[in-house]
Every structure is written in C-alpha cells, then in structure tokens.
Design a protein that fits this description.
Layout lengths: L1 E5 L5 H14 L5 E6 L12 E3 L7 E5 L9 E4 L10 E9 L8 E8 L4 E9 L1 H6 L5 E8 L10 E7 L6 E11 L1
Parallel strand pairs: 1-2
Antiparallel strand pairs: 2-11, 3-4, 4-11, 5-10, 6-9, 6-11, 7-8, 7-10
Length: about 180
C-alpha cells in the first residue's frame, strides 16, 4: 500500500502527526510519501518560485547561484512510527542549463540541538543534469536507517546542497519512507 499526500512545507509537521496515527492504526505496513509540487504557495516563505519553468504544473523551486541550500523537508522522528519503515528515498526533477560544479542531493539524519549528524548520504547530480542540459531529469538518493540511529531528538532532512555555484530548478520533490 502507498499513501501520497501533497502538502506545503509549512503544513508538513501537522501532516506527519496525522500520518503517524494512520500508520499506527493500520496493521499493514504502508509507505509514507510527502510531495512538494510547488503549486500550493499560500503561507510559504523564502521559497523562490519560478512560474512557467516546471516539470509539472506551473511552478518550480528556483535555486540561485548564491543560495547554498535548496528548500527541503524536515521530519522529526518522534512524530513518526519509526518501526514502520526502514528505507528513505528522496526523488526530485531537476533542470539546469550548465552545471559546472557539484550539487549534492542530501539525506541527513541529525540531532539539530547538538548539531550532530547521525547518518548522511549524498548523491552528486552534476553528471545526470549535464547529460541533457535544459531538460528535466529525475534524480534520487536513498538511505537505510538502522534502528540504533533512530534516537530521541533526531530529524530526517532532505535537500540539495548547492555549494553556492549553480542556478537550477527543482520540481516534484518527494520523500518516501518504505517498510
């Protein structure tokens, strides 16, 4: 089974609470999927959107050359049934004219209060995007999270680390937690 929800980033935490309750009440393990399609912009802040440049719909998230990190997801593990999932997959559609330096698609399990990174996985999207410049291309990164890494205060984050060099667009950013 798969559950998909389209949400604005400001509603992400409330939705995580709801999904955790749904997952716990269902005997079958389900994949949880969070999607940012950048079409619902009411209430968002500091998310540069570009009209007319999109993989789907009308809008995408524009990452500027001087922007070190893209908009991303942050899910506190305390709000999820951590026993219900083992693998995290982040996918997005990316468009860039010419990517000369690395951009890292990042999954990061961390404890923000201590600035401690428990587990981090990076995927360099440079070669994918340069294969067909100016064309939307799907990129993904995946991480298995062992039970011993699921500690109190841990937060799962997914974002692009730009190293302040590239201008590119992101659309249909999806985070999936799988059993």
């Amino acid at each position: 089974l798969e559950m998909q929800i389209r949400i604005a980033p400001t509603l992400l935490l409330a939705t995580a609470f709801l999904l955790a309750g749904i997952a716990c009440s269902n005997q079958k393990k389900v994949a949880l999927r969070f999607v940012a399609d950048y079409e619902q912009v009411q209430g968002w802040f500091d998310v540069p959107l570009e009209a007319g440049v999109a993989h789907s719909g009308r809008f995408s998230h524009k990452v500027e050359r001087n922007q070190e990190f893209s908009h991303g997801f942050a899910l506190p593990l305390a709000q999820l049934d951590t026993a219900a999932w083992q693998t995290v997959t982040a996918t997005a559609w990316v468009n860039c004219i010419d990517m000369t330096d690395p951009v890292l698609f990042t999954l990061d399990l961390m404890i923000p209060s201590e600035n401690e990174h428990l587990q981090t996985v990076y995927y360099n999207i440079q070669s994918d995007v340069n294969r067909q410049p100016g064309i939307w291309q799907k990129v993904s990164v995946q991480m298995k999270v062992p039970n011993e890494r699921r500690t109190e205060g841990a937060v799962l984050k997914a974002y692009f680390w730009n190293n302040r060099q590239q201008q590119f667009w992101i659309d249909d950013f999806t985070l999936t937690l799988q059993p």
